[in-house]
Amino acid sequence: MGSTSDKISGAANQAAGKAKQAAGKATGSRKLQAEGKGQEVKGKVQSATGKAKSAVKGTIDRM
């Protein structure tokens, strides 16, 4: 994936993860809360990956 698509996917996963966590809290489902937390973390990693790719590309472009 490119840096932009990583950032977009990351943001989407973070939002979905937060929604799952909220739904899990509302229903008392620890499983859903855990799934949401995992998806949120996955999104944060994807976003960080996208930012790192952008930084590397920016460095290479300046050379």
Automatic annotation (TrEMBL):
Q: Where is this region: Disordered?
A: 1-63
Q: Which residues form a coiled coil?
A: none
Which InterPro entries does the protein's record reference? CsbD, YjbJ_sf
Compositional bias (Basic and acidic residues) at which positions? Answer: 32-43
SUPFAM superfamilies assigned to the protein according to its UniProt record, in alphabetical order:
Hypothetical protein YjbJ
Q: Which residues form the CsbD-like domain?
A: 6-57
Q: Mark out the compositionally biased spans (Low complexity).
A: 10-26
Q: Which family does it belong to?
A: Belongs to the UPF0337 (CsbD) family.
Designated name of the protein: Uncharacterized protein YjbJ (UPF0337 family)
Where is the organism placed in the taxonomic lineage, from the top? Bacteria, Pseudomonadati, Pseudomonadota, Alphaproteobacteria, Hyphomicrobiales
